[in-house]
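Hi Y.,

Following your request, here is the sequence exactly as I used it, all 115 residues.
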Amino acid sequence: QVQLVESGGGLVQAGGSLRLSCAASGNIFSITAMGWYRQAPGKQRELVAAISSGGGTNYAADSVKGRFTISRDNAKSTVYLQMHSLKPEDTAVYYCNKVRDWVEWGQGTQVTVSS
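Below is the corresponding structure, written out as C-alpha cells. Let me know if you'd prefer a different format.
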C-alpha cells in the first residue's frame, strides 16, 4: 500500500514559482505511474500532470502545459511538480496519487496565487 505526503505549497504572487513534493511510502513506487491533481473550491479534482514509472513519458494538461513540469526520483520515492508563471486560476489544493487504481489520498498542499 502506498501512502502519500504532499508539501511545498504556499501563497505566491501571479507570475511566481513553487515546487511541490510528494513523498510516497511503499515498495511499489518505482513501478507506478504517478500524477499531480488539483481541486479548486467548488470544482472537481482534475489531473494536471503525470509521469510514467521510469520518468520517460510525461503528460501535462493544456491549462498548465509549458508552465508546470513533473519529475520523479525513484530512489527517494518522491515525485515533484515545478510550477512557473503561476496564475490566480492555479489556486487549489494539490494532491499526488497513482494515475490508475488510486490509493488513499493524502492531505494535499494548498497553493494560493494572488493577482
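The two ends are 40 Å apart (CA to CA).

Thanks again,
Q.
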